[in-house]
Design goal:
The chain is mainly beta. The protein has two domains: 20-136, RlpA-like domain (Barwin-like endoglucanases), CATH 2.40.40; 146-238, Expansin, cellulose-binding-like domain (Immunoglobulin-like), CATH 2.60.40. Helix content is 13%, strand content 37%. The chain has five helices and 16 strands. It has helices spanning 3-17, 35-38, 61-64, 108-112, 120-126, and strands at residues 18-19, 24-31, 56-59, 73-78, 89-96, 104-107, 128-136, 146-149, 159-164, 171-179, 186-192, 195-198, 206-214, 217-227, 236-238, 249-250. Strands 14-13-10-11-12-9-8-15 form an eight-stranded antiparallel beta sheet, with no helix packed on it. Strands 2-6-3-5-4-7 form a six-stranded mixed beta barrel. Strand 13 (206-214) and strand 14 form a beta hairpin. The termini are far apart.
């Protein structure tokens, strides 16, 4: 069989097995307060409290992905049908979980939200729950992808940006910046979590282009005018675009059904 035929068969196999709802089995613990999650490795800080009703999560390195997994949304439900609902709850990744005994450590509010009505405190008493979970698209109604200029920025010599309200089911893996109207792009590097920086800051109003991946492939997202010429440290700016792609993964176990709330 020729090399070309092998490639075609491989691509067909990927397409056949592709799923956007890979189902995983694990355990989930909780923090008694969400402050540690909001100030976690993704760098969201106080902005995290506006995400998904403070249903925040620290994820293991395979999900955190050196920061590219920051902002990813997951739906999880515990497997004790006496205590927990079939819908479970949704959480957003804001921190790194270094404990490999559970895939996630979530806020107490998110942990209780998996419970049937009136059973929240009973679930909390367990401390750790057996769960199943899957990645789902993040949805921010009425909000575009947004950037915040970090306090470490030193205009005009150093720029650090934090990305907020990333929709869809994708990961940002590359960021370039240029003056609006210019084709001379400067690459930014991931400082940590959701924060990207550069010491080569173009003058004037700034545009961004992002490389985002969704499973097997990636694409460019171009935000043509993001920061005005008079941008300020601590400023929050609407990119004018939103990412809504759905990732496709090769799943051993796939769940295409919606878990109704």
């Amino acid at each position: 069989m020729g090399f070309l035929n092998l490639c075609i068969m491989f691509l067909l196999l990927i397409s056949t097995n592709a799923c956007d709802r890979c189902l995983h089995q694990s355990k989930v613990a909780f923090f008694s307060t969400s402050s540690s999650l909001s100030s976690g490795a993704c760098g969201y800080g106080s902005s995290a409290t506006s995400f998904y009703g403070s249903h925040l999560a620290a994820a293991v390195p395979t999900i955190y992905k050196s920061g590219s997994g920051c902002g990813a949304c997951f739906q999880m439900r515990c497997k004790d049908s006496k205590l927990c609902s079939k819908a479970g709850t949704q959480v957003i990744v804001t921190d790194l979980n270094k404990n490999n005994e559970t895939d996630f450590v979530v806020s107490g509010r998110a942990f209780m939200a998996m419970a049937n009505p009136g059973m929240g405190h009973n679930l909390l008493k367990l401390g750790v729950a057996d769960v199943e979970y899957k990645r789902v698209p993040c949805v921010y109604k009425g909000k575009n992808l947004t950037v915040r200029v970090e306090e470490s920025t030193q205009k005009p010599n150093y720029l650090a940006l934090k990305f907020l309200y990333q929709g869809g089911q994708t990961e940002i893996v590359g960021v370039d910046v240029a003056q609006v109207g210019s084709s001379s792009w400067t690459y930014m590097t991931r400082n940590y979590g959701a924060v990207w920086d550069t010491s080569r800051v173009p003058a004037g109003p700034l545009q961004l282009r992002l490389v985002v991946t969704s499973g097997y492939d990636g694409k460019w997202i171009w935000a043509k005018s993001v920061l005005p010429a008079d941008w300020t440290v601590g400023g929050v700016y609407d990119s004018g675009v939103q990412i809504d792609d759905i990732a496709q993964e090769g799943c051993g176990e796939c769940d295409e059904q919606d878990w109704k709330f």
